[in-house]
Amino acid sequence: MALLADPEIAASLLRWHLDAGVDLALDDHPHDRFAESREQSARRGVPEREPLRPHVERRPLPIAEEDMRRPRPAPAAQRAAPVAPLEAAETARALAASARTLDELRAVLESFDGCALKATATRLVFADGNPQAPLMLVGEAPGADEDRQGKPFIGRAGRLLDKMLLAIGLDRRHVYIANVVAWRPPGNRTPTPQETAICLPFIQRQIELAAPRLLVTLGAPSTQTLLGVKDGIMRSRGRWTSCSIGGRAIPTLPTLHPAYLLRQPAHKRLAWRDLLAVKKALDAS
Predict the structure, then answer these.
(1) Parallel, antiparallel, or unpaired: how do β-strands 175-179 and 128-129 relate?
(2) Which one-letter DSSP state was computed for residue 244?
(3) Cα(99)–Cα(108) distance, rounded to whole angstroms?
(4) Residues above pLDDT 70, as percent of the chain
């Protein structure tokens, strides 16, 4: 309030309000001008009139010939209800098993409507890299950059992953990359257990068809989903285990997700140890 004692500041403030279109001073409390008008009319003895209601003649809208031929939408009771998660997972298993090649699997995923994430995603994020590569890496789900371009691990985490691979002499020509969930969850949220269960048969079939010699799971969600474990990634990482897919036991190494390493760069030394273990295993295979 002391600033308003300065005439120049007060004048400047008034000019600012005028330029903004505020040219009328109001009270601190609202006024009901309609009630005030009725009170004044009552004091003058003028009877209150009902508000006029304009008469609008309602006429039927013209219907175009093509609109008459167009089928009407089914009533809400007749529309298809959302597929239950258990039913969607059963359908996913049957469809995944029917795919004989990775191209067929991708086509199956493109036509699959059992996962609600498809409705909010821009496009399917199937895979990147070389499907004949001996090493396959699996993350959790696409992010915003992946959703826009349709390829996994191409945002900040993906650029870090490329550097990690380059550190052991690899690039995307030497690896095959996918995610457990093939559609981006809204707002990059964590996929629900139901969404993961519905998508699981597809990533399992994808691994089976790619038939890598080695598998690397990136982060806790993909590790827990594919290996069926509950341990956190700090307990699981760096320890070779096996992933049973299609009757094969694939040597699998869990490691830290690149997105986690961006938040915790001090743990890159742990990921480096895991990368060296992967390189040693590739050289020996």
Answers:
(1) antiparallel
(2) E
(3) 7
(4) 76
CA dihedral 102, 221, 231, 161 (to 10 degrees): 80
What are 145's two structure tokens?
Answer: 């950059």
pLDDT tens per residue, range 145-177: 999 999 999 999 999 999 999 999 999 999 999
End-to-end CA distance of the chain: 79
CA distance 141 to 61: 49
CB 264 within 8 A of CB 121: no
CB neighbour class for 123 (10 Å; exposed up to 12, middle 13-18, buried from 19): middle
* Domains defined for the chain, CATH in brackets: 85-284 (3.40.470.10)
Q: Which residue has the higher pLDDT, 279 or 52?
A: 279
Write the DSSP string, 194-205: HHHHHHHHHHHH
Mean per-residue pLDDT, 20-40: 63
Quickly count helices (H) and strands (E) in the chain. Answer: 13, 6
Which tokens sit at 260?
């986690």
In the three-class reduction of DSSP (H, G, I as helix; E, B as strand; rest coil), residue 74 is classed as coil
CA distance to 121, 172, 277, 278, per residue, from 283 (Å): 39, 17, 10, 9
Backbone angles phi, psi at 215, to 5 degrees: -130, 135
